[in-house]
Specification:
- The chain has a single domain, classed as Rhomboid-like fold (Up-down Bundle).
- A hairpin with a 2-residue loop joins strand 3 and strand 4.
- By secondary structure, it is mainly alpha-helical.
- Helix 1 packs antiparallel against helix 5, helix 6 packs antiparallel against helix 9 and helix 8 runs antiparallel to helix 9.
- The chain starts with a strand and ends with a strand.
- It is built from 9 helices and 5 strands, in the order ββαααααααββααβ.
């Protein structure tokens, strides 16, 4: 399922979301201009689990943050930015700009560490915003469980567009990450870092809980 938009209108401009999205796009554009040197860029700025536990310097830890803004290819970038665009604005609206920025980065850190803990000997760099974006989805689920997500749904050879409850959409998404994550344990080689998604999502759920009471008190939203 691919999210297209939700039915909640933000009260404020999501400046942090726009900034994060812009940085990701600009970094990927720079990667594209590197041509054959793009792979070296990914190895330099991606997080290598082995190096987190066997650091060669401060740069080994700085990659925890640089990896969140680095992507392997255009479809990797497009998918992450689409999910960010759909889910992040309302979460930022409720949390506030500065708190949302901290929240986003913390979820990204949690994602990196859960992935690294499950593959401590891996020398394959992890890149992408999906861990942090998964945290945004976790918070969205806490804040807006009854919101509706306009979704593109593949049904065999056909595609259908329909509104789905966020609880259903995000729940199915998480179960997919969960089962494929555990199925991937022990597998070698690159691929999707499912445990990064799981780590970011759980962090987002837990961090969002203290904000839930605030939403009930003073946050109204309009359906459009």
């Amino acid at each position: 399922m691919i999210p297209l938009k939700d039915d909640i209108e933000s009260r404020t401009r999501p400046f942090v979301t726009y900034t994060i999205l812009t940085i990701n796009v600009l970094v990927y554009f720079y990667e594209f201009l590197l041509g054959p040197d793009k792979e070296l860029f990914i190895y330099q700025f991606g997080t290598v689990p082995y190096e987190l536990f066997n650091p060669t310097g401060i740069s080994s830890y700085l990659t925890i943050f640089t990896s969140m803004f680095t992507h392997a290819n255009f479809m990797h970038l497009a998918g992450n930015m689409l999910f960010l665009w759909v889910f992040a604005d309302n979460v930022e609206d409720l949390m506030g700009h500065i708190k949302f920025l901290v929240f986003y980065l913390v979820c990204g850190v949690a994602a990196v560490f859960l992935h690294s803990i499950t593959t401590p000997a891996s020398r394959i760099p992890m890149v992408g915003a999906s861990g942090a974006v998964s945290g945004v989805m976790g918070a969205y689920l806490i804040f807006f469980p009854t919101a509706r997500i306009l979704s593109l749904i593949p049904l065999g050879l056909f595609l259908r567009i329909a509104y789905l409850p966020s609880l259903f959409f995000i729940g199915i998404w998480f179960l997919y990450q969960f089962f494929l994550g555990f199925a991937s344990i022990g597998m070698k080689g690159g691929g999707v870092a499912y445990f990064a998604h799981i780590g970011g999502f759980i962090a987002g759920l837990l961090i969002a809980l203290p904000f839930k009471k605030r939403r009930k008190k003073d946050f109204d939203y309009e359906i459009f």
